[in-house]
Amino acid sequence: xxxxPTLRAAAAMxxxxxxxxxxxxSTDMRxxxxxxxxxxxxxxxxxxxxxxxxxxxxxxxPKERIVTQVQDFRDxxxxxxxxxxxxxxYTPEQIESIAAYFAAMK
Length: 106
Prior knowledge:
The chain is mostly helical. It has helices at 3-37, 40-43, 63-74, 83-87, 92-103. The longest helix has 35 residues, at 3-37.
């Protein structure tokens, strides 16, 4: 019977599929982390603003609040010095991803 080689081939294919998915997810996560890193200059490393600074911390803020605020900056509904320019540089999908990244932090 050729059952053992068939099972090994199936197992190898399953491992390859899992590894490919993991690499894709880690690449996506690295991309999101890179986008979120652009916030560090004003909002602190990993969204943890320095106590006493004027800018608010983003880490742990609800995703929808971050999305709404960034959209308001982008659309000119909220006054800003530079945030309105920065917000215009992101796609809606990127804003969602960045917001989810910071919301997931504690």
